[in-house]
Amino acid sequence: MCRPRIEGKHGGVEYRPLGRTGIQVSNPCFGTMTFGWAPDDWGSTEDASIKIADAAYEMGINFWDTADVYARGTSETILGKWMKGKRDRIVLATKCHGKMDDTDPNAWGNTRKHIIEACEASLKRLQTDWIDLYQIHRPQPEVPIDETIRALDDLARAGKIRYAGCSTYGAWQACEAHYVAKALGAAGFVSEQPPYNLLDRRIERELLPFCRTYDFAVIPWSPLAGGQLSGKYLDKPKEGRYAKSDPMGRVNAKTTAVVAKLAKVASRHGLTLTELSLAWVANQPGVTVPIIGARSTAQLESSVKACQIKLSAKVLADVDKVVAPGSMLVPYYEAKFGPNARPNV
Hints:
11 strands, about 350 residues, 3-stranded antiparallel beta sheet, about 35% helix, 8-stranded parallel beta sheet
């Protein structure tokens, strides 16, 4: 079912329904992965994080995404301090799955034990009584999905979470979770948070059609492919996420050539590459809202504005000529999609 989209009144930010929940969330969602890391190429100190959070809130952003593993809890802690006095107006999303203690073999994953303990820890760090959207950060095929669903349902019945979602699941895994939840009489997942950008369009093959069919909200991460689709890596910069560390080889001659072609497409249509890339993700069929990050007010304003742009059929066709639907140049949509699949990334 395609639900109507509702325009907001705060600085022109658009609000859209979060899948079948009906909750209205801002386009875009603000991601806080940078909060609490050392202020090197992409991290933000607590003061800087709070300053950019204030600016985003003033612009009308009400949807915030974090995770317990972001700076090992520091991102949640900063967000919790910042939310004081604003909590009722915030749609708060966080995630669990990642390792939180290197000495404890049970301090990670999708088991009932870890999910319950991780949720309690996140609630304390976030200084809140409830989490609006609690997401399983990655699939773990070794753990039966019914154990994960039951744990999330118990948290919802206890009032500690309001909805549950998943992130970077294979289409078959999201589908299995959906029908297992029905069999258990549980609410199950209402959303999926996959990577989606012009360098990796693989979710268009199966995951997006599934989400559209079952009215799952889709909240893409890395819409700018780690900054590649802003054009920052075209000139081999010294700063940036991939400038010093790129273990998966995501910035290479092939991607750089494609990014340059996309920049020309953007220029022909009077857009910046960032505007083209964010607007493209924000308005793909089935996408709810993309997740953005920002380290400056200017960057934030530019990204929010880009997400409001509606692209013409001509622009979309020109993009498809450069990067075909369902194609992949570098891997972002990667996780453990089955017992013998590669490890989570």
